[in-house]
Each structure stands twice: as structure tokens, then as C-alpha cells.
Amino acid sequence: MSEITLRNICKMYDKDHYAVKDFNLEIHDREFVIFVGPSGCGKSTTLRMIAGLEDISDGELWIDGQLCNYFEPKDRGLSMVFQNYALYPNMTVYGNLAFALKVRHLPKDEIDRTVKQVAKTLEIEKLLERHPNALSGGQKQRVAIGSAIVRRPKAFLMDEPLSNLDAKLRAQMRIELAKIHKETETTIIYVTHDQTEAMTLGTKIVVMKDGLVQQVAAPAEVYNNPANLFVAGFIGSPSMNFFKALVTEEDGKAALLLGNAASGRKVFLEGKRAQRLLKEEKDREVTLGIRPEDIYEYQEAVDGGFEKNTVGLEEVVDTREMLGAEVILYFESQGKTQSVRLKPENQSKPGETIKLYMNPEKIQIFDAETEENIFYEREI
Ligand SMILES: Nc1ncnc2c1ncn2[C@@H]1O[C@H](COP(=O)(O)OP(=O)(O)OP(=O)(O)O)[C@@H](O)[C@H]1O
Ligand SMILES: [Mg+2]
Question: How far is 151 from 130, CA to CA, in rounded Å?
Fold first, then answer.
């Protein structure tokens, strides 16, 4: 069992700059919580404050009903896995796994049983007699995770544990980690700046920027219902497309004019979303956001029943990326590179013009000043 609560946690390394500000979070037993955000946003600092490796400047850290701000790291019942493995080079894999248990003076047969069980979970049974220098990066990482598991911590804290691995191994270890989480039934707090890791591993994602939490939600929720422009742009690859647009009213619908009015480019929204938009942003410029997979070609738009909502979005293909199961076309619009994800049958080549249709249901609108998502549905 573990419940970890952060209340208004702050960190100031120097007196007029917050590295982390008012961080609030409840972590429940068996959750896989991901801290994600760009470099320097305060992910490691927050994790290190939870671990006890960094002082908490302000706020409260509760672990299982105890206020832990001043507990020594070893008294918090947490186990940290570092990016650079931290294995004992002179010990075998077995020795590395057994170490924490030997220190606790556990009976030999119990140590042996635990080590073998963990080795089995991690599929490193055949490596037990080897030394760390005879292991691959992925194997070392598994041993490091194993030596954390044997301690049976209340929670694992992991700071970019896969960042030293090559792309293929990283993808493999990602799957392993999901499996380990399921099998060990423990709580994991995991730091990464890789949004794929965040989306695939997390049960809950904390998106951070400049020391501030931007949104806390399940991966699908963060993806489909981003709180603001930053979250929308950070999560998803290729990134969400953003267009400047003017909100006007036409026959009771909201018409979003893209570019200057003379270009005739517009997208219509209807129903509740339109009403909300007109109420809050009529005659104002906003940022329209739409994901590459929510833009279609004519026939798909007709099939979806929304081709009439888009007028005049003709774009010249810049680059074509064939990924096998899909093709991504990049184009320039409003001085930015935008993209659309289409079926692999699409044959458009660079230099050709393609007509595009947005799915109005999937459009997000961000206030030009606050960058908040007008359509954001706050979770209760
Ligand atoms: N020991 C320190 N002294 C002073 N400032 C620090 C210290 N450690 C971190 N910082 C600053 O605090 C901020 C947050 O740093 P942190 O290491 O938490 O970022 P991060 O999100 O983990 O970034 P990355 O993805 O690059 O690891 C940064 O501006 C960083 O420069
Ligand atoms: Mg870091």
C-alpha cells in the first residue's frame, strides 16, 4: 500500500526563482505516474524532493499518512532507479540483486528465493553469474530495476531510466516496464521528456512547464482534452497543428476564418461548441488546433459527413513521409510547418496541391492571450 500526496510543493534553488511552484498531486497505490515536460521544467527536482535527495522549500509531502518533509531518504520506503544504472561493478548480477537484502541480514535462503524470483520476472536468470561490464545497456538497466524491486519499496522513483538506451532497446524496455509494473503491483513515479513513454506507460500523466503543473490526467485525456496550448502541442507526434483564426458568426454557426478574409478559407463549427465559442470569442482572434489525424481528404470527409464545414483549404505538399501503415504529408501554412496523417494509399507528391478537410468535432480553440483551451472539459 502506498499513498503519496504532494501539497503545494515548492523548490527555490535561489531566492527569487522557483524551480517548482505549488505542485499538487495525489498518487494512489499501484499508479504509474509520469512527470513529463521539456528540459528544465522541474521534473527531476520534484522527483528528488519526493526521494529526499533535495530539500523541500515549501509545501507538504505525505507518504502513507505521514508528513515526510524531513524524513531521511532511507526512511521514506522508496527506491530510486537512476539513468546511469548505479550497479556495483565488482559484484555479479546475483550479488547486485542480493546486496540490499544482505545489508538487512535476511536469511540466506530467503535472499536466494527473492533474487531468483525477481530475476525470473525480469528475464535475467541466465545472467546471474555475470559482472555488469559483461552486460548490454538494456540488461544493466534490468538489473538496476531488479535491485530496486528486491527491496519491496512503497514506490519506485525513476528518472529517465531509458534515456541511455538506443531507440530499439528503449521501445523494448518500455514494454518490459509496463509488464514489471503489472507483475510487481507497485507504484511507480517516472520522469521522462519523451511523450511516447508518457503516453504508453502512464496511468496518470503530469505535464509540466517552467516549474508549473499544466495538467494532470490519464494519457488519453491529456491527448483528447488538453487544458491549454502548451499541453496540446507537447503531447502528440507529429505535433498538433495550430492556425490563427478569426471567430465570426454566419447563419448561427461559428465560422473560423483562417488567414485574411479574402482568402475565403474557413471552417464552420455547429451546435454547443459553436455557441460556446461565439459567446466567449466572437470577433476575436484565436488559435485553432487540430491533430494531423483529424484532417482528411475529400472522400473521407464525405464519409464522415463534414466536408461542407471546410471551405478552401488547399495546401501544397512540402514533404511526404511514408511510414507503412500511414503517410504523413507536411505543408507550410501561416509560416509554420503543418502536417496531415493520411491512409497509405494517398499518392500526393511534393509540389502537388491537396485539398484538406478538418473534422470540426476535433478542433480545439485556444484563447489568444491566456492560451487556455476554450473547449477544455474540467474533470470533476
Ligand atoms: N542544484 C541546482 N541548483 C540550482 N538550480 C538547479 C539545480 N538543479 C536544478 N536546477 C534548476 O532547476 C530547474 C529544474 O531543473 P530539473 O533538473 O528539475 O529539470 P528537468 O525537468 O529534470 O530537466 P531535464 O529534462 O533536462 O532533466 C532548472 O532551471 C535547473 O537549472
Ligand atoms: Mg531531469
Answer: 21
